Amino acid sequence: MRLQTLMQKKERLVIGLMSGTSADGIDAALVKIAGSGVDTQVQIVDYITIPYEDAVRKEVLKIAGGKSVTAGEICEMNVLLGKCYLHACLLLCQKAGVKPENIDLVGSHGQTIWHQPQPADFLRYSVTSTLQIGDVSPICEAMNTVCVSDFRMRDMAAGGQGAPLVPYTEYFLYRDAKRNIALQNIGGIGNITMIPAGCSADEMLAFDTGPGNMLIDAMIFRMTGGRQQYDRNGETAAAHQVDDGLLNWLMQEPYITMKPPKSTGRERYDDRFMDRILQKAKEERISDGNVVASLTAYTAETIAYAVHYDLPCVIDRLIIGGGGSYNKELMRQIRRRLPEMEVVTNEDLGYNGDAKEAVAFAILANETINGMCGNIPSVTGAAHPVILGRISQ
User: Fold this and answer.
1) Which of 22, 45, 130, 162 is deepest in the core (most CB within 10 A)?
2) 185 pLDDT tier (thresholds 50, 70, 90)
3) CB 301 within 8 A of CB 337
4) Burial category of 210 from C-beta neighbours within 10 Å (exposed 0-12, middle 13-18, buried 19 and up)
5) Higher pLDDT, residue 148 or 65
6) Could you tell me where the DSSP H helices lie in 179-258?
7) Chain segment 127-151, per-residue pLDDT in tens
8) What φ, ψ does residue 45 adopt, rounded to 5°?
9) Number of C-beta neighbours around residue 206 at 10 A
10) CATH superfamily label, 2-165+354-392
11) 350 pLDDT band (50/70/90 cuts)?
């Protein structure tokens, strides 16, 4: 009955949940959504970020890092994260002054622990695979609401990479009749969306540019013995020198020059990749601080490479979002490499960049409930548009 009632509503109160590759916490956005497709109207009501406890983050990174774990550990984390997502929903409702039972729908991306969009041999079969954990059953039970989760698998079944999915919603929110717009999110992984002036959704292009904050965070964690998890404001990078040799070596990593559609994640830029960087730095006698500066430059360089070599049109405005937009040195490095265009943050435009991806999964959940396809085949590489996600109630 709840689903039938929901499908008949013209306006819905929806929570979107996102926890990204950096595994630093849960972004939760409360939005009012009316309509669907190109007629979608979105109003952000409220937003919060709930950091993971240190022990939870450590365990998530262990599981997602490709190290040996048991099925039991994955199962237990799946349930634990589901409870964390429920907690985030309840805190968001409390902050917004909304009763949990009045929430019509929750769209939860889940926590990616593996993403392998390129075919791999497994038991004599060729498979692509992705897995996001964080069971939504606790939300359905406690809030008596409908949830949509597991968004990526259906696109992969249609031959796509299951990513990126956010561009579908970026088209609604950011398209411009006169300017070529690109949106660069810098989370653990960097991803870019190109929206040509006056385009239709199937003319968009989006893909992962490479590592975002992931390698910088990992280096800071190792450098400080775990006392610091990221380079606050880019202060460490700004105080040290980029090693051009290390930067050039990093830019030889094969993913960077792969042509879209493409996506990547922690399974590529994991501890083993970081160990190779540190071994190179040791051989070349590069200080830890200079490694941080070089990794910051590497993220900026991969973004500039994507803009210059992978986008088919000249960009007028690049909008930066995600945690990397707060790294002043990273932003300086990006602007220095892209002087021909306007480089701004979501906040510069009056938007909340932290909320963007959580809002996106609220919109995608709404599309699913309306029976609307939520992928863009030209972006993900899927053979055709598909309805995304699993519905729980």
Assistant:
1) 162
2) very high
3) yes
4) buried
5) 148
6) 214-223, 235-238, 244-250, 254-257
7) 999 999 999 999 999 999 999 999 9
8) -90, -45
9) 27
10) ATPase, nucleotide binding domain (3.30.420.40)
11) confident
CA distance 153 to 169: 18
Same fold, 2-165+354-392 and 176-340: yes
Q: What is the DSSP letter of 102?
A: G
User: What does the mean pLDDT of the chain come to?
Assistant: 95
Residue that the structure tokens 């939870």 belong to: 56
Cis peptide preceding 164, ω within 30 of 0: yes
Fold of 176-340: Nucleotidyltransferase; domain 5 (3.30.420)
* Alpha carbon distance 280, 290 (integer Å): 13
Q: How far, in Å, CA of 65 to CA of 218, rounded?
A: 12
SS3 content of the chain, % helix, strand, coil (to 5): 45, 25, 30
Report the distance separating Cα 346 and Cα 271, nearest Å. 31
- Segment 314-329 mean pLDDT: 96
Question: For 97-166, where are the alpha helices, taking DSSP H only?
Answer: 137-143, 153-157
Q: How many residues are present in the chain?
A: 393
Report, as an integer, the average pLDDT of 367-391.
96
H helix or E strand, kind and range, residue 111: strand 105-122
pLDDT value at position 217? 96
What pLDDT is recorded for position 1?
54
Q: What is the three-state SS of 376-392?
A: CHHHHCCCCCCCCCEEE
Single-letter code of the amino acid located at 244:
D
The predicted structure's pLDDT at residue 352: 83
Beta strands 390-392 and 146-149 are: antiparallel
pLDDT of residue 22: 83
Q: Based on C-alpha coordinates, what's the Rg of the chain?
A: 20
